[in-house]
Model the fold of this input.
Amino acid sequence: MRAGYVKRFSPVERLLHWVNAIGFFFLLATGLILYLPRLSTLVSRRQEIQYIHFWGGVAWLVALAAVVLLSGRRLLATARELDRFDEDDLRWLRGGKAPQGRFNAGQKINAALTAAFAILFGISGLLLWFGEQDTRLRFASTVILHDGLMYVSLALLVGHLYLALIHPATRHALRGMTLGNVDAEWAAQHHAKWKPE
Amino acid sequence: MDSPPVNREQPTEPEPHRYGRGVFLATVAAGVTSLYWGKAAWDSVSGIISPVASAVAPILPTGGWRIYTISGHMPVFDPATWRLEIGGLVEQPVSLSYDQLRALPHVEQVSTFHCVTGWTVKDVHWGGVRINDVLNAAKPLAAGHALRFVSMEVPYVDYLTLPQAELHNVMLAYEMDGRPLPREHGAPVRLIIPEMYGYKNVKWLQGIDVVQQAASGYWENLGYDRDAWVGRSNGYGL
Done:
């Protein structure tokens, strides 16, 4: 590691992030073909796209679960970090200036929502798939839940991409998720309470 | 004294709140229970946000519709070759061109379209003809008690009994919201029966056969109900 850089995200944290990101974009693309009339008309092969979307979703959740389970205790420590909100986090959320740890309070909430959404996408997706064959698994609201999750996820994703790629003060963080390390000065400024190893 | 020394001066860090798991569990719980309240909630807010929905319509042109097809290729309507064939148990089979179909008495209606998977499009403006105006030319025989609707999207077919087909707002629609029926909605003509779920509303019609009795259509062969009454079939409201 070059002098002046500190390690922010471990390989397994980055792996989990990118498995999630790749799966999400794949499912968004195939899902929009099923959802938007113009794309549905253009592509036309609904049965095949539906099949690819469903099995892509299964693969995404299995891959996420595999990374979590195979990482042993390493991601447990990360989860514990994301779980805890101290007084500074609450001040930060109320819009005040407050020193943040390795994750700021917004990132903690984003992580909790992203994890919950993966589970809800999975449940509603399985219900849509198997509900076609079994009326006991058919709910009038399944499609509303699945679509609603898509809209909220998309809004979160737009915000996330803005902060990671465009916003000058925060876009340096992208380096943490690609190479694993960030500039020590940037870290001290944005994550003052974090004590890098 | 054996007890360990306690430094009472040192400020103790208050226990952090475990809000992360709270947000996670609350979101999962809200999502799972929304299977029971989601549609009612959506129906009550969709009226309020419909101005927003129509504002984003050019960007997000769904209009609430999803386009379902069962084959690899969406049928293409060619006015030069397309015919609506009325056959089966009739005295005189009839073959209607697009212009001949449009020359029959024109009716319009506004009705709501319900998909069995849970989405709904309110107040769709349909224009077309009543089924009897099409059937009468072929003179159905007394032995016929049902109709088979044949789509250009092979092998999609579905059936209605004659009493179902004669409900007041059943129509063969060749216009939607003031324009010719778009390809993805079943051009040139589709069946509309608002009281039943969308899969009975056969798109891309090319034939109507008078048959002795109703049988299972495409989705019914995959486990859906033949009598697809909205809110009273397919596991809903029963």
